[in-house]
Every structure is written in C-alpha cells, then in structure tokens.
Amino acid sequence: MNYTRFLNRLSLARKPSPIRILTAILNESSPEMISMAGGMPNTQTFPIVEASFKLRDGTVLELDQNIMNKGLQYAPTPGDGTVLELDQNIMNKGLQYAPTPGLPDLVQWINGLQSRAFEALVSEGDNVLLEHPTYSGTLAIVGPMAANLIPVNSDSHGLDPSHLRKTLSRWSPSDVSTPGSGAPKILYCIPNGGNPTGTSLSLERKKEIYKIAQEYDLLILEDDPYFYIQFTKPYIPSLLSMDVDGRVLRFDSMSKLVVIRVNRGYPLNFNICYQNLHLKQDIYGMRIGVLTGPKPIVDRVNLHMQCSLMHASGLSKVFLIKLFEHWGHDGFLEHAEKTAAFYEMKRDLCLKSAEKHLKGLAEWSLPTGGMFLWLKLNVKDTKKMIEVKAREKNVLFVPGSAFMIDQTQPCSYIRASYSTATPEEMDLAFKRLADLIREEMKDSD
C-alpha cells in the first residue's frame, strides 16, 4: 500500500532529532564509548536506589539498583533495546497478529499512542468515519482537528456494515485516487465490548467491514481495549488477524487488566517490529495499550515523539517488564480470563438491578463484553437530568450526548459502568435513576 495518501502534511514533514539519534547510538555502543553529547543526568544523583512491589497472590518482585538506574535514565525514543522473545504461535494468539511469517522482538517504547496516530493521519477538512456512538475520548482528540466526522451507525451487534456501505455510496471506489474528491480514508471502530454500547462485532461482520475497506481503500483504526473482556469464548478474531493489505492499525490495551498507578500522567509504550508491522504498547501509569500497524505510519508517530515527550517513562517500563517476566504468556492469559469472568459477574448483577428498577422506564441490550450498560431512557434528553438532578441525588452516570458527534442534539441515552460499584450500590443507583425518570416524565406531561 502507498501510505502517503493517509499521512498528513505535518507528519510527512517531520525529521529525526539529531540528539535522539546520538542517544540511540550510545545505547548500542560498547562500554568503551565516551559520550559528551547528551545532557543525561548522572546516576549517582538518583534518589531511588531499589524498589519492590507486591502482587495480589503475595509474590514480591524486586527491582535492584541496575534496573532502577535503567528505569530512571534517559533512553532512545523507540526504547533501549529490551527484548522479550516469544514463540510465533504465542504472538499470534495473544496479540492477534495477521498471518505474517517472522518473529517479533520488543524493540521500541514510545507514548501518546492514539492522539499521535490521529495527528499523523488527519488533516483539516478530511472526512473521517466513526462508529456511532463512540468513545468520548476519541471525539475529544479528533474534534479540534477540524475534520468532518461522519457517523456510521451501530446496533445491538456493533458497527453496521450495511450503513457503512450506504454512507460510502456517495463516493465511488475510484474516487479514493482522485485528489479533492473528499473520499474518507479512515474508519474508527471499537469491535469488542464497545464504549459506550457494550456490543461486539461478529466474525462475519468483521469480514464484511474489511471487504468494504478494501473496496474504498480505507485505513481501519481498530480500537480494542476490551478484547480480553469478552464474555463469550473463544475470542472473536480481530480485524488485524484478517488483514492482508496492511490497512489495519489495531489498538490493544491492558489498561483494564494491569492497573498499577506508579507514575500517573507519564505514558509509556513499547513497539514490536513485525516485518512490515510495528506493535506498540502504550502505558499511562501502568495502563497498557498496544498499537499494531504499518511501519511507515508507526515511524511517523515515533518522529512526533522525538520532538515532544522524547521517550516514555523508564520506571513504568521496568515495572512492566518485571511483571511480564514473572507471569509469562500463560500467566497473563490466566489473569485475563479471571478478569473477564469478574466483569461478566458484575454485568449480571447490573442487569438484575436494571430489570428490578428500570423495566418500563428504559431499554437496553445485553453487553457482550467490557464494562458498560447503554440505556435508552423514556426521556427526550438526559443531559440536564444526569448532569444536574442525578448529582443532587448522589448518583453519577454519563449522559449519552458525550458519545455523540453532535453533542448539541437531544439524546435519550446514558452510559452506566458496572466496573466498580458494589451490588448494593448498583441497586440503589438504579432506584434513584428510576425516580428521576418518573419525575422527568411527569414534568414533561
């Protein structure tokens, strides 16, 4: 594929930082290399010498002085060359790679993954296709870019391929190669446990969406933080796993599986070169996300990092590596399965309370993954009711308008998260919500 069509002018104009290049050279050099180039702090001034952290099973993992020095010192933007060697079949199963030959190594660490991906791809005036409703954080990223955000409807089974084709029918497939045609080049979707809807795409729908993307030369941004929180098994294969063109940028995440608040606000990712693909893991504190995609695009994101945050938090990195070394692949999957079972139990408790208090006052579909219940209330617009009246009754939900492209229009939906509330709290929250709905319906009569 020719990725020039997808990258914007700013991204194409970026050049490597000379100092960042020298830092990488030093990292790869022999101990005999004398550096008077970079402004790196002396390790003798580091106040933290060693550390340990305790896992839920009681295991204590130690970080000695050498590891701490490495974690606190400057590093090349892509990372310091730390390698985790994993079997090919493990990588395919655990990270949903496409069926491409080769063994990936852990070689790059950067940060600011999603926002920097959009910043590399979207230009003012571009037509961008978004699954609708969609994650409010994505709207916050793309909204200020002055692009035209085009909604692609979803239903109880996720993004609707028939509506995608209908939306694209205003262009012909040949328009993608015509400058100024306005043909979209990006499709963003959340395939599993959608935020806010809780819906998941079937394998058949994914195949249909990918086929349409091939016809219209779309780059698919597959944002999949809830992949491991699917409530049905086996896992539904990803769009990336069927990608034969290099047109999928896949965002994985372990932010819902590994949450260790160490250095809040300092993101971290690592990037695995996989032939013409790059895999990146993005960590905020110890929130972990992964982007796998075409190397030409990943390289441009990396250049953006060089001129902004330079590199990710080394301290977060050493914590993460230590945890992965202890767990191994099987240990990680075991933890993921336990986490999914936990949230499935929470979902069932949430549905029980919703059925008890909201029957006849709201509608909802069964969440098939993730942490959210998407409710349509018997109310024309939920914004004021949720943002003002619900708070007065000491209950918090998110008004559905937060997930809509046009947030000025009335919206009957709300998002309820069942991740942290206890069964008793969920029951009380829905009772208070039911009272609010009745009051709102009475006032509108």
UniProtKB/TrEMBL annotation:
Residues 117-256, 284-433 form the Aminotransferase class I/classII large domain. Keywords: Aminotransferase, Pyridoxal phosphate, Transferase. One of its GO terms (molecular function) is pyridoxal phosphate binding. It comes from the Eukaryota. Its cofactor is pyridoxal 5'-phosphate. The keyword Nucleus does not apply. It is an enzyme of class 2 (transferase). Gene3D superfamilies: Aspartate Aminotransferase, domain 1, Type I PLP-dependent aspartate aminotransferase-like (Major domain). Its EC number is 2.6.1.39, 2.6.1.7. PANTHER family: AMINOTRANSFERASE, KYNURENINE_ALPHA-AMINOADIPATE AMINOTRANSFERASE, MITOCHONDRIAL. This is AADAT.
